[in-house]
Design brief:
It is a single chain. The protein is mostly helical and about 750 residues long. It folds into three domains: about 190 residues, Methane Monooxygenase Hydroxylase, Chain G, domain 1 (Up-down Bundle), CATH 1.20.58; about 150 residues, no CATH class; about 200 residues, Methane Monooxygenase Hydroxylase, Chain G, domain 1 (Up-down Bundle). Helices cover about 80% and strands about 0% of the residues. The chain contains 28 helices and no strands. It is a multi-pass membrane protein. InterPro entries: Memb_transporter_dom (IPR049453), YccS_N (IPR032692). Its main location: membrane.
Length: about 750
């Protein structure tokens, strides 16, 4: 345990999160020290505020978006500050300005994560503007101009430092993706044998899938956009190769979502035969976690000995199972183990590809992905003005959140004014930091904020009681700011702790009565948290069950497109399969959004988790269906298969009809009657007969003493077994999805 904690601390200090915290702190300290030495220190606080306000929009992504985002943030923060300061002497003007500015700024969240951070900077500028004092128009304009200068200084400083120490962000996101993928493989390993714990493990998988998909999107923007903009470099090429292998690992894992009911049927009495395969997944997961550490530490990559040893044990495990059960009884179980082994062998190949790239093996440097292909895989954020105005509707969760935030900010301001609370703008600051579009996230951040504030306050009290040395306060303030900015996205509770200590120590430098600062800090946090929770719960609440229809609809639509792309792949295997890959990416993103929406629903109050079990079933069915399609596509891609049969097309068309009917239910279209004639039964019989013929042929070979199977016969058996079982599985899943969706639509109609 101690060793793991020390390792985590080392990784934190070597990672980009701490590095970014250092950049923020030094970019604030440099102008403070410089202006003090030049005897013009009165201008320094405005520069420091400008840095602090515009740092949030500096997140991993393409250089172009980073520069444009920071410039927009600079314009917004300086203009907002000036507007608030000009209106500050007039109470009723502020009563109008605060909700209007909150509305206009908060709605920028419609432009994605970077847009939401720019909006946060604008709101922060409004609140801090209420906390500073300038009397004349010239002073206000100079302050606004210095804030803009502070933002520009931060942008130039980060660009310079990133040129001197490049690619820290890429390494951090690559490392985090390796870590999450490793954890994902280990959870998959547990699912093989943990029959009674599968629901909990499946929920873990849903959460990990969402996190991995988010990391993939970030890496697509960082690596593919950069490649398009500035061409190839050796470093970028290496990182892109690692990313491609990580995507392949994730998609291979999703494509091999095992039918655990069949596994339990065949191996319930012989679980020992599953252990080598479970162990191989654990070893591969641990290896990816060790590689994630190597990316940050820059040390040697771990040896491959454990990987090879685990693979060999899994290979022998198939023979041990056949020897134990005996053919032909062991055939279906052996086919399942063969398919599982093939999948794990491909995973291991991708892991070894990552190893070769990290070890700078020359043969790993050729990149297959063309620039024209790469651009198609980037998810572009649309920045047209129409998006802003389209979200001015009660159908938009962002609009409803904006209205709640308006009311909360005005209530916090009026509460502070009416009760003449010292530093009442801290209440407003708590509101903008805590409030999120849904109740569950707001409640979670409220809890973490309060706990973090209390811990920070206790720590600050202990220090202030021990010493009144201002140098100690200054050092602790600088350290607190560094750790706050480093941890705020990773662990909000700890980040909130350091934010509290930073604010208290800064005020302790300015006000000898620091205990009052601590008292008001805690009280204001509690008031702001209460306002946030109440407005989120009572005003235009965004209960997640109301938004799920569109999310499920998107999954069904993208799964249908992916199914048809897989059918096309089976007919045109040697053609360019870029459309297959793109449809696969969109389907995975859609199911990731569904997973995230369901996770948010579980955070809502129990009374608002309507039909939770039914929705969980629909989420699981959609996820399993997508995995089954991916499994089919993966097999077609990586194996020498025969041309798709007429029966294959009959199955696909039948499954598509079920999905079309499901989509029509969700979209409230006119329902067309489903034709379930004899065609599908006939196709099922023919596919089963084909597998049985091959099985009988193999039985005759065994009777004649041919115990070692030919590779071609093994491939034919695997293909016949997998195609029949996957199509049958997909048919059953599509029918179950249709029935569950009918119940869902009826429940909410």
């Amino acid at each position: 345990m101690i060793k793991d904690n020390l390792k985590s601390i080392e990784l934190f200090f070597k990672g980009s999160h701490f590095y970014r915290g250092l950049i923020l702190t030094t970019s604030i300290l440099i102008p403070l020290v410089l202006f003090y030495s030049l005897d013009i220190f009165s201008y320094a606080p405005s520069i420091a505020i400008g840095v602090f306000l515009n740092a949030p929009s500096d997140i991993p992504g393409s250089l172009k978006r980073k520069i444009n985002g920071t410039l927009l943030s600079i314009l917004l923060t300086s203009a907002t500050t000036c507007i608030i300061l000009f209106g500050k002497p007039f109470f009723y003007v502020l009563v109008v300005l605060i909700p209007v500015l909150t509305f206009l700024i908060s709605l920028l969240s419609a432009y994605g994560f970077r847009g939401s951070l720019i909006a946060f900077s604008g709101l922060l500028a409004m609140v801090i503007g209420l906390g500073v004092h300038y009397d004349t128009p010239s002073q206000i304009l100079i302050h606004g101009l210095l804030i803009a200068c502070g933002g520009l200084w931060y942008l130039l400083y980060t660009l310079l430092v990133n040129r001197l120490i490049p690619k820290k962000d890429e390494d951090q996101v690559i490392s985090e993706t390796l870590l999450l993928t490793g954890k994902y493989l280990k959870v998959r390993a547990k699912l093989i044998t943990k029959k009674n714990n599968r629901t909990k493990l499946q929920n873990e998988l849903f959460l990990l899938q969402t996190q991995i998909s988010e990391k993939h999107e970030t890496l697509r923007e960082m690596l593919l956009t950069e490649r398009k903009r500035s061409g190839r470099s050796h470093f970028d090429e290496k990182r892109l190769l690692i990313f491609i292998s990580l995507v392949d690992i994730f998609e291979l894992a999703l494509a091999n979502n095992l039918d655990y009911t069949k596994i339990d049927t065949h191996f319930s009495e012989r679980k020992q035969h599953l252990k080598p395969f479970k162990n191989l997944n654990f070893v591969m997961g641990n290896h990816l976690i060790m590689l994630s550490e190597s990316v940050i530490k820059g040390n040697k990559i771990p040896t491959k000995n454990k990987l090879i040893k685990a693979l060999n044990k899994a290979s022998k495990g198939i023979k041990y199972y056949v020897d134990d059960v005996q053919l032909p009884k062991a055939r279906e179980g052996a086919m399942m183990l063969h398919n599982l082994y093939d999948y794990q062998e491909k995973l291991l190949y991708e892991i070894r590809s990552i190893r070769r790239v990290m070890a700078n093996v020359k043969s790993a440097s050729s990149l297959k992905l063309q620039d024209t292909e790469a651009v198609q895989f980037i998810t572009h954020q649309e920045y047209s003005s129409s998006i802003y105005f389209e979200n001015i509707s009660f159908k938009s969760p962002i609009f409803r959140h904006t209205l709640r935030l308006m009311v909360s900010m005005l209530a916090a301001f009026l509460f502070g004014e009416y009760f003449e609370i010292r530093n009442a703008y801290w209440i407003m600051l708590t509101v903008i930091v805590i409030m999120r579009p849904n109740y569950g996230l707001t409640k979670e951040r409220t809890k973490n904020r309060i706990i973090g504030t209390l811990i920070g306050a206790v720590f600050a009290i202990a220090i202030i009681m021990l010493t009144t040395n201002t140098i100690v306060y200054a050092v602790l303030a600088a350290l607190s700011l560094t750790f706050a900015f480093s941890l705020i996205q990773q662990n909000y509770r700890v980040g909130a702790t350091f934010i509290t200590t930073y604010i208290i120590f800064v005020y302790a430098l300015l006000d000898p009565n620091a205990m009052n600062v601590i008292k008001f800090r805690v009280i204001d946090t509690l008031i702001g948290a209460l306002i946030s929770l109440c407005t989120t719960y009572f005003l235009w609440p965004n209960w997640e069950y109301k938004n799920l229809n569109d999310v499920i609809e998107s999954v069904v639509k993208n799964s249908t497109i992916y199914l048809l792309a897989t059918q096309n792949l089976s007919h045109n295997k040697n053609s360019d399969n870029i459309n297959y890959k793109l449809s696969r990416k969109e389907a995975f993103l859609a199911v990731g959004n569904l997973n995230a929406a369901f996770q948010r629903m579980t955070q809502d109050p129990k009374s608002k988790q309507i039909e939770l079990d039914l929705i969980y079933k629909i989420v699981t069915l959609n996820h399993t269906f997508l995995a089954a399609v991916a499994s089919l596509g993966s097999f077609i891609q990586h194996h020498k298969t025969r041309e798709a049969s007429e029966q294959f097309d009959v199955f696909i068309n039948h499954i598509k009809n079920n999905l079309d009917y499901t989509f029509a239910l969700l979209h409230k279209d006119e329902l067309k009657p489903l034709h379930t004639g004899a065609d599908i039964s006939e196709a099922e019989d023919k596919l089963l007969l084909n597998f049985q013929k091959l099985s009988k042929k193999r039985n005759k070979e065994i009777e004649k003493g041919k115990t070692i199977i030919d590779k071609s016969m093994l491939n034919d058996l695997q293909e016949a077994h997998l195609i029949y079982n996957q199509l049958l599985w997909l048919k059953g899943l599509s029918e179950s999805l249709k029935k569950s969706t009918e119940k869902y639509v009826n429940a909410f109609s």
